């Protein structure tokens, strides 16, 4: 049997890292995922999921319960947390310094995260000002998660309310079209928006945001967390000004 990989994501394949990140996200949303729900979430076959579950279990990263429920072991949680942190740091670099869009940066970060050493990870975090969240507002580690407010689902906000976009949840991050839509209308963490209409019959919510009026379904809106009114700007990380200047027009 292979030894568990304690916290170091480097030996894991890109596919295995994706499974660990998804299991981490599903566990964070509550409940215990099973193979079928994991396969649907990842958009892969049940056979491929079963094979990966077997490998992760053999490596000591995944535990299979008596009712086939899946849960990360301590080593698996450490590995998933490391992957998420490295992915988040790379997304900050790719979006705010290099200038890629959200969807594109997610793909690139997935390619690079496994090759990032602890030393480079530490230096990158320092360079970026030690962010406590990813660019989408999700806590970068357990310490940050405990220190930050939970927020409420955008789908639960009443018409006429002003809100601050707080967090695009990890499940929402997996929807490339939704990410692109939110970025297009600048409905990003820290943005102020007013809910102008909520329609259960049309399954939609309409906002007046930084780039005008936008409408989305209540299901994707349920994956977006907001804070009432104008939230404290300190909740939203800003990279150091020197790095920001690198992507400024004419830099």
Q: Helix-strand pattern, N to C?
A: HHHEEHHHHEEHHEEEHEH
What is the CATH topology classification name of the domain at 152-231? SH3 type barrels
Biggest beta sheet attributes: 6 strands, antiparallel
Helix tally equals: 11
Describe the secondary-structure layout:
Blueprint: H1 14-28, H2 35-42, H3 46-58, E1 62-64, E2 70-72, H4 74-98, H5 102-112, H6 118-127, H7 142-147, E3 152-153, E4 162-168, H8 170-173, H9 176-184, E5 192-199, E6 204-209, E7 212-217, H10 218-221, E8 224-228, H11 241-246
Helix pairs in contact: 1-4, 2-3, 4-5
Q: Can you offer a commentary on this structure?
A:
Among the domains are: 14-78, Orthogonal Bundle (Arc Repressor Mutant, subunit A), CATH 1.10.10; 152-231, Roll (SH3 type barrels), CATH 2.30.30.90. Helix content is 44%, strand content 16%. The strands form 2 sheets. It has a 6-stranded antiparallel beta sheet with strand order 3-8-4-5-6-7. The longest helix has 25 residues, at 74-98. The protein has helices spanning 14-28, 35-42, 46-58, 74-98, 102-112, 118-127, 142-147, 170-173, 176-184, 218-221, 241-246, and strands spanning 62-64, 70-72, 152-153, 162-168, 192-199, 204-209, 212-217, 224-228. With 251 residues, it is of the alpha+beta class. It is globular. Residues 1-10 have low confidence and may be disordered.
Compact description:
With 251 residues, the chain is an alpha+beta fold. It has helices at residues 14-28, 35-42, 46-58, 74-98, 102-112, 118-127, 142-147, 170-173, 176-184, 218-221, 241-246; strands at 62-64, 70-72, 152-153, 162-168, 192-199, 204-209, 212-217, 224-228.
